[in-house]
Structures are given as structure tokens and as C-alpha cells.
Amino acid sequence: MFYASINEAEGVRELQNFSKKWDDKYPIITDIWQRNWSGIAPLFSFPDGIRKAIYTTNAIGVPGEAWLNKEVKFLSGKGVTNQPELSFAYATAM
After folding, report:
1. Cα 56 from Cα 29, distance rounded (Å)
2. CA 22/CA 44 separation, integer angstroms
3. CB-based contact 29:91 (threshold 8 Å)
């Protein structure tokens, strides 16, 4: 996934690859990541070991759930109630 990329440019390319693979089935997920990119981009300024600790540790990732919960509420309000799609969005964000 893009968060394991070595820099932001590669992360953008990986997000585009993710989009090509999954947008037909789960179109909203790439949109969520793109709208929140300003909060994700600083991750690439950390060394690889620190970055890996951040994206693999739930305790550190918990503050990031706030925007995800907001997105799920937004999607639900727009009539998106497809549980697999919402679950996939959650899983990819964690």
C-alpha cells in the first residue's frame, strides 16, 4: 500500500495503482484517501523504521480514526450503506 512507499511521489503512484485496481468495486476509497492526503503526506518525512511503526501500530493510528469515522458518517448520510465497502475503507485506513 502507498504508506509503505519510500517518498511521497511513490506514495502518490501507489495510490494511483490502488485506484486502478479497486475503484470499479470500491470507488469511494480512493476519494477518501485523496481528500485526506494533506494529513497523510507528512508520514513520508519520517525514516522508514519510524514510518513502519506508525502505519503498523493501532495505538498510534487511533487518532487517525477520527477522520475515518467522519467519512463513514458522511457516506452513510449520502446513502452509502454497503457494509463491505465501508469495512474495506476502514481496513485500508488502519
Report:
1. 19
2. 23
3. no
In the chain, where does DSSP find H-type helix?
8-22, 27-35, 37-40, 48-56, 58-61, 65-77, 83-93
| Distances, alpha carbon 83 to alpha carbons 31, 76, 88, in Å | 17, 10, 8
The pLDDT-based confidence of 66 (bands split at 50, 70, 90) is: low
Whole-angstrom distance, CA of residue 74 vs CA of residue 36: 14
**Chain segment 23-60, per-residue pLDDT in tens:** 998 888 888 888 888 888 888 888 887 777 777 765 44
pTM of the model: 0.56
Q: Answer with the residue of higher pLDDT: 19 or 54.
A: 19
Whole-number Å distance between alpha carbons of 62 and 84: 21
Provide the number of structural domains found in the chain.
1
